[in-house]
Every structure is written in structure tokens, then in C-alpha cells.
Amino acid sequence: MPGRPITLDSRCAPGFPDLRTSRPGRDGLVALGGNLQPDTLIEAYSKGIFPWEAEDPIPWFSPDPRCILRPADFHTSHSLKKLDRKGRYRVTADLRFREVVRGCATIHRPGQRGTWISDRMGDSYETLYRMGIAHSIEVWDGYELVGGLYGLAMGRAFFGESMFSAHPNASKLAMRHLCRTLAGWDFHFIDCQQHTEHLQSLGAVTVPRREYLDLLEDALSGPDMWNPDHADMLVL
Fold first, then answer.
1. What is the pLDDT of residue 113?
2. CA angle, corner 70, sides to 66 and 72, nearest 5?
3. Are 101 and 117 in contact (CB under 8 A)?
4. Which phi and psi angles does 3 have, rounded to 5°?
5. C-alpha span between 179 and 84 (Å, rounded)
6. Strands 189-193 and 157-165, bridge-based pairing
7. What is the rounded CA–CA span in Å between residue 141 and residue 205?
8. CB contact burial 116-136 (16+ within 10 A = b; e otherwise)
9. Which of 132, 125, 195, 127 is nearest to 161 (CA)?
10. Do the beta carbons of residue 80 and residue 169 sit within 8 Å?
11. pLDDT tens digits for the chain (236 residues)?
């Protein structure tokens, strides 16, 4: 039976439960409340939990099963390979982080009303970007930003947050280049959070929460592999 989500105090230090010994609520809801300060977000992700902000109290989730993509397993379709070879688009990293977040927040998504990426959430992830924890991949058509994605890198795990395309397949191109880079750096997986047919088409799979927590513990056991010392290794 699912458990009841815990309540977090926004004025206090985070206190997320150990998901090996506790039962999240329905739909993987772990907690309500708290804040989006850097220490709160870092603790959450390190325990397999992420926020999905809509309004207060902030909901924190850990779905079961969990969707992950191993970088070496990224599926590149023939059409995507052809698009990449044409050289029309330029791909960069960590160049326009907040613009990528804004693109993810404002792009129209069929079947969705509005966005969970509020200005408050954007501010919080921008702080993590300045700390060297959050990162973005940008896709350019000339000087126009036409796609990208953003997420967090900790240890050898990349936690994907959102992506957008203003041109067809721009976000897939961003993911292709991200996966090539992460595979070269021996990252273990990209956390895609929840399964979608789109992610599955790119090579993502689902694993039970307990297996995900084992993979996460292993990925976080070593040093952070995305840092300024590795900037020249970006495969873009």
C-alpha cells in the first residue's frame, strides 16, 4: 500500500526520507512543502527525488518504475543522423542556460495547459548552474536558439529536467550530442524521470525504483565528472 507523503517545513533544512525504508505516496509522491534552495535540491536528487512545482506546497516525487537512458544506448534514427551531418545546426553547452529554461517553460506541448517550470524554479536551477551543477545544451540555427535541454550533473549521473524544440528534431539533436559527451565521460545514466513513448524511441528504459536507487548510489560514489576541467572534452 502507498504511504502518506511527509510534510516539509520551508524554513528548515531539508529532511527527505530514505526511499529504501519508506513508502512514497500515490503516483510516487514523497513529500509536500519545503523550498527550492540548493541544499534542498541536491539532497533530493541524491536520494532519487525531484520537484514538480505547480504551486505551494511543492510536490516532490520518486516514481516507480523510473525511466533512465544509458548514454551509449541512445538511438539515432537515420533522419537524425542525416540532419546532424548536414551541419545546419550548431550545438553548444552551458552558453545560454536561462534561455533554455525559458524555452522549456514557454514551448507549447500538446495536451498540457501551462507549465510546471515557474520563475521561482528557473531562479533555483540558475543558482545551481552558477554552482557548476546544472547544465544546458543549446541548438542554434544561425544566431537563433531553436532547441535544447537542461538538467543536473552529479557524480556520473545526469538528471534531465526538460527539453524543447522550436524546429523539428532540435531537442533530439541536443540529446544526441549530450549522450555522446556523457558516454565519453563514463556517465552511467540520464535520469528521464517518467516514461514517455518519445523517450522510449530514443532508447530509454524503465527500471524498478529499488534498482534505480542502486544505480544512483553507484553513480554518486565517485567524483563529479562534469566540471570546468573537462570542458574541452564536450562532443558538440
1. 46
2. 165
3. yes
4. -90, -175
5. 14
6. parallel
7. 31
8. ebeeebbebbeebbeeebbbb
9. 125
10. yes
11. 567 888 887 777 778 999 998 888 778 999 999 999 999 999 999 999 999 876 789 999 999 999 999 999 999 999 999 999 999 999 999 999 999 999 999 986 554 444 679 999 999 999 999 999 999 999 999 999 999 999 999 999 999 999 999 999 999 999 999 999 999 999 999 999 999 999 999 999 999 999 999 999 999 999 999 866 655 556 66
| Order of all β-strands in the sheet with 205-207 | 90-93, 134-141, 144-154, 157-165, 189-193, 66-69, 205-207
Angle between helices 78-86 and 170-184 (to 10 degrees): 90
Q: What are the grid coordinates assigned to 101, written together?
A: 529554461
List the grid coordinates of 209.
Answer: 525504483
C-alpha cell at position 104 = 522549456
| Per-residue confidence (pLDDT) for residue 142, from 0 to 100 | 96
Q: In order of start, what are the domains of the chain with their CATH numbers? A: 6-62 (3.30.70.3550), 67-233 (3.40.630.70)
